[in-house]
Amino acid sequence: MTSTLTTTLTTTLTPTVQGKKHKSLRKARLSFDEFDELRDPRPEASDFSVICERRYARRSFLGGAAAVGAAAFVRSVANSTGAVRSALASGHGWLDFKPIQTSTADTITLPQGFSWHRVISWGDPMWSSTPDFNHNTRGNGASQERAFGDNCDGMSFFSRGNTQLLVVNNEYANLEIITGNRPDGLPANDDDVRKVMASHGVSIVEVATNNGQWRAVIDSPYNRRITPATPMSLTGPARGHALLRTEADPSGTLALGTWNNCGNGQTPWGTYLTCEENFNGYFLSSDPDLAITPEWKRYGIGHEDWGYNFARIDERFDIAKHPNESHRAGWIVEINPFDPQSAPKKRTALGRFKHENAAFALSADGHAVVYLGDDERGEFLYRFVSSGRYNPSADNSELLAEGTLAVAIFDDNGKGKWMDLTPETTGMSDAENRIFARIAASKVGATTMDRPEWVTVNPRASEAYCALTNNKNRGVKPNAGGDPTPTNGPNPREKNNYGQIVRWRPAGGDHGAETFAWDLFVTAGNPSVHSDAYAGSANITQDNHFNSPDGISFDTQGGLWIQTDGNYSNEGDYASQGNNQMLFANPASGEIKRFLVGPKECEITGATWSSDLRTMFVGVQHPGEGNGESHWPDAGNSVPRSSVIAITRDDGGPMG
Ligand code: FEO
Ligand code: CA
Ligand code: CA
Ligand code: CA
Question: pLDDT by residue (tens digit) across 198-226?
């Protein structure tokens, strides 16, 4: 998430850490990463000699291209006609529509010939015993535990027999909205904290159509809320490790809950993967003198939380009392949505970091491959390969328990490799390589990236794409581990406000291969403001420009959907870019067309399709997060609510 917190940080912090600095931030709008950096400042400049060295190396590589400047380089890379491009020639689907203009309206805008309706919103009851959402109280702890969670993000559609389930992440809550009825816009009592806590996690909802409109099936036996309190098992190499043991769980095998669930993944054996991203911001220390370890620092854990104050009702979130609890978050969690009694499984084999999503593929010889981004400035791109092989006629439920975790190293010449994180390569134990994957990856020289958000795998070609959303620190500051972040191949622009999408094609078309070829599919930019590299690549025009690609998803036909979580100020560098949006791209030609614009101050995130492909479900997250200018999707002066919408073609045709 990038999303902004209208900072409500001060009053919920422990009194001893409330300082002038934080008071001055009260009304500022900060991203979570920005708050972490303010709390734990990084040096202003990364290792200058390294930057110079890299620049020199790049100039030699660019040869003639350097003479015409970085803009030409970026544009030519994005429009390359090399090996990657030729592999894409066949099989993409191309949805026909007339692209739309940007917009700042507080509504959903779609091309002619398409319609949308709301499926479910934050606070909508999932059981008949729960009251409808109340715009005055905004719910309470008990109602929220039995209602759809807040800030819908990644989601997947599941179908079995006549049962259709929508499984949706509920990433976090905007305190200024969910507790906006309190004097300071902050949780005012224990029940407020309980409500906020219960708005996090995952919502599993049976859905069905009624007169062409998708609706939740109230009281379905499959309906389930998974929250920060739901028991789940710790599996894999770190299970039972001393760093995972707590007073309540001396075995280190049973954790409570999941929170800050960002993107998602889906396995061919019918399970859902939810990804714990900014898990750190929920921990605080009641002891202001507690020494913050380098490991905590690397993961953004310090004395202060982001204002949620979970520790007020659950001391697990106090690192002074329970130092190992934070090691039990930051994982991929596997959920069986068709078994409401099942305990979700935290998969330590897939590493611990700020997980964006989990993109599934199969290697040529049948191993499960999961691509994983770590969304923070200058962090890394990972790949997991299972030890066992997928067998459609066998039980695959423990396939993600064991395997190899590797990190991407890109060179500047369009090639790259996966470096395994093992005791031999890192000098750390197997369990430590998973628990402190960031530290392990730094040790092997992983390529610092411009905030890896979603990865998606093309079903029609052997290639994967990753959205690198933006990175204002590129070339300016090191990452949280002190790794310098000079510009590099897939991250070519300093102070990168706009972001880019990198794609790679594994050697031999095998997602299990050790090496790959890469290029940039697009560098986002604003050609109405800039004429240099910040105008974007050649496939960015006055008609389709955007900033901060985040959610990316291929449809079954090989069409690429790009969702943005960017700056919607509509001014300065972002002039005429309007509200956040969703675009449709042709991976073979590079053409990009704007398909949807969301309401004010929202992010568009999460995409999945009905079994018949005639409906595309899309998430509209945190409308009204910043200045409260949105009242979407309800009427009048209502509280804005994150919602899942369904999009269909008026001619009844497929959506992907
Ligand atoms: Fe929750 Fe990186 O987005
Ligand atoms: Ca978000
Ligand atoms: Ca995201
Ligand atoms: Ca984002």
Answer: 999 999 999 999 999 999 999 999 999 99
The response to whether residue 555 sits with its C-beta less than 6 Å from ligand 1 reads no
Closest residue (by CA) to atom 2 of ligand 1? 1
214-252 b/e (C-beta count within 10 Å ≥ 16 → b) = bbbbeebebbbbbbbbbebbbbbbbbebebbbbeebeeb
Helix, strand, coil percent content, the chain, rounded in steps of 5: 20, 30, 50
Report which ligand 1 atom has the smallest distance to the Cα of 451.
2
Sheet holding 581-585, edge to edge: 549-554, 560-564, 581-585, 592-597
Query: Which ligand 1 atom is nearest residue 262's CA?
Result: 1
φ, ψ (nearest 5 deg) of residue 282: -105, -5
Closest atom of ligand 1 to 260 CA is: 1
Give the torsion sign (CA, 620, 626, 628, 629). negative
- pLDDT band at 92, cuts 50/70/90? very low
Q: Is 379 in the pocket of ligand 1 (CB under 6 A)?
A: no
Does ligand 1 come within 6 angstroms of the Cβ of 455?
A: no
Q: Kindly state the tokens that stand for 183.
A: 């004097």
Burial class (CB in 10 A: 0-12, 13-18, 19+), 44: exposed
pLDDT at 249 over 60: yes
**Ligand at shortest distance from the CA of 621:** 2
Backbone angles phi, psi at 566, to 5 degrees: -125, -165
- For residue 12, pLDDT over 80 is answered with no
CB of 1 sitting under 6 A from ligand 1? yes
Q: pLDDT tens digits for 314-337?
A: 999 999 999 999 999 999 999 999
pLDDT digits (tens, 9 = 90+) for 331-378: 999 999 999 999 999 999 999 999 999 999 999 999 999 999 999 999
d(CA 534, CA 531): 7
Which bound ligand lies closest to the C-alpha atom of 603?
2
- CA 5 to ligand 3 center in whole angstroms: 15
**Separation of 379 CA from ligand 4 center, angstroms?**
14
List 215's β-bridge partners, or say none: 208
Q: Is 22 helix (H, G, I), strand (E, B) or coil?
A: helix
Structure tokens at 434: 């998973």
CA of 499, nearest ligand number: 4
Tell me, in angstroms, the distance from the centre of ligand 3 to residue 624's CA: 17
pLDDT at 35: 78
| pLDDT tier for residue 29 given thresholds of 50, 70 and 90 | low
Dist. CA 561 → ligand 3 center (Å): 14
Whose atoms come closest to the Cα of 275: which ligand?
A: 1
Tell me, in angstroms, the distance from the centre of ligand 4 to residue 1's CA: 4
pLDDT of residue 42: 72
> In sequence order, what DSSP letters do the residues of 493-525 get, joined into one string?
-SSBSS-EEEEEEEGGG-TT-SEEEEEEEEE-B
Q: How far apart are CA 547 and CA 567, in angstroms?
A: 7
Q: State the amino acid at position 159 in one-letter form.
A: S
- Give every CB contact of residue 221 below 8 A, 6+ residues apart in sequence: 340
Take atom 1 of ligand 1 and give the residue whose Cα is closest.
1
Q: Please report the pLDDT score of residue 43 as a whole number.
A: 60
